[in-house]
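Q: My hope is that you can spare some time for a protein that puzzles me. Underneath my words sits a plain record pairing an amino acid chain with its backbone structure tokens. Those tokens are not coordinates but codes from a learned vocabulary of shapes. Thank you; the sequence and its tokens follow:
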Amino acid sequence: MAAKASKKGKGRRRPKSASVQRDDSKTARARQSDASTSGAPSSAHAASHPGRHSPEALSSHSRGKLSLFLRAAGLPFWPASILPVLIGTALPFWLRPDGFTFGWLRFVEALVGVLLLHAGADLTNEYFDYLADSKNPRRGGLAGGSGALPDGLLKPGTVLRALIVCYVAAAAIGIHLNTMLPGNTVLIIGALGLLGGFFYSAPPLRLSYHGLGETILGPCFGVLPVLGAYYAQAGELGWRVVMAGLPSTFAVALILWVNQIVDHEPDREAGKRNLVVLMGTKAAGRGGVLTLVLLVFASLFAAVFTASLIPLSLVAILAFGLARTIVVECWQRHDRPDELREAQVSALKLNLAFGIIIAASALAAMGA
């Protein structure tokens, strides 16, 4: 929940710094003592609260922290990165490039590398987009960030160190994968993904504040992972691989677009000038959403027509009901963000359905 002024007139909570802060309130310190990791509890306190610091309680606390950290790293949205990797990995079974042999290690490294880049991008957004998140009363859900920093649940220093570790680990995996393949294509694709995810919210570019975030993040979570995963298996690229990655690109852009409609007001107050803010919720919720939905399905038909995807992929049109829900909900409720939850969930499901069907369809060509 958003931090609010109390009835006694206290101001908005400030974000905690990376350094340890002194709490002048004895009452607050007593309430939080069981969650502190800076020292052992006193014997009197332990006696008055038996079992609070038992191994079971500490294990539960650790699991809660891990769950919170994974939420800040974008865990609910990781399928948006996993599915393009699966598509790119399965696609050679349909396109049959010369000399193709499937490699499990290359697949695993591509998948882990992309997930690390995804986690790094989300943690970067958590760290640098604090102002917009702190103004968002709906943070902690499908939009508005996890709320871990504005609510003081994680320290900025912890998030900063974590995002650095994610990027360094992803770079190490990319370098190793690059040694197993010709040229430096893997490094180029990985660098584009890293820079796009980082500068989406990080200064000095802050692409999401200047109407460029949607045009960058869609490819970073769509066609780029498809290209990288395909190259990891085939050692070559072609225009048909790009065509095969377009449905995922537009599906991811649709998820981002719907979430930005929900976040329109806090984003505008924080100084963001993304396309939804510039267009307004009416134009974005009607024309913008309809355009992206049409592009998702049009790119699927185009990919099949050009033999970039197997015709079996057209089974994905059965997800039309999800697309209809997104269009209708955003058309009617674009100015009521609290009522767009169904549109958000449907956008996630649409991307999931397309990704699974396209990847599975390409694998179906394995025995042909």
Q: What stands out?
A: The CA atoms of residues 40 and 153 lie 20 Å apart.
